[in-house]
């Protein structure tokens, strides 16, 4: 099945939502990855890093479509900063309710990227951008 998305903002909202929901809802898996990635066999590490580079490329492509004034290096730096902010929940638990964490990380990600936050819609009790639920597969390399 091919899904055609007409608006790069929708694509970015889906990427952000997928990353945020994965980091919040699958925190133990993210912690395991961060702790154990270095102990993988070299071939598996290379494959994983390649998948992650492709994932970052997807973010960079969408970001530069929305912000054509960005150089490639600046776009990559912003993407890595945004992903790092989201993934910080693996090592930090501020004791906030899940829905508040989702909303804060979503807003923070858009701020890091310098892109206006899209209209928020409800998924459960959390207000997050996008049009699909939390059943999306985890980001590449985290399956």
Write the topology of this structure:
Layout: H1 8-25, H2 27-36, H3 42-66, H4 72-87, H5 98-113, E1 121-123, E2 126-128
Antiparallel strand pairs: 1-2
Explain this structure.
By secondary structure, this protein is mainly α. The chain has a single domain (8-128), classed as Tetracycline Repressor, domain 2 (Orthogonal Bundle). The protein contains five helices and two strands. It has helices spanning 8-25, 27-36, 42-66, 72-87, 98-113; strands at 121-123, 126-128. A two-stranded antiparallel ribbon has the order 1-2. Strand 1 and strand 2 form a beta hairpin. The radius of gyration is 15 Å and the shape is flat. It starts with 7 loop residues before the first helix and ends in a 15-residue tail after the last strand. Mean pLDDT is 81; it is low at 1-5 and 121-143.
Name the CATH superfamily assignment. Answer: Tetracycline Repressor, domain 2
Regarding CATH, which class? Mainly Alpha
Beta-strand share of residues: under 5%
* Widest sheet, order of strands: 1-2
Terminal-residue CA separation: 21 Å
Number of domains: 1
Radius of gyration: 15 Å
Put simply, the count of helices is 5
Average pLDDT works out at: 81
Portion in helices = 55-70%
**Which regions contain 5 or more consecutive residues with pLDDT less than 50?**
1-5, 121-143
Structural class: mainly alpha
At CATH level 3, the topology is Tetracycline Repressor, domain 2
Total strands: the figure is 2
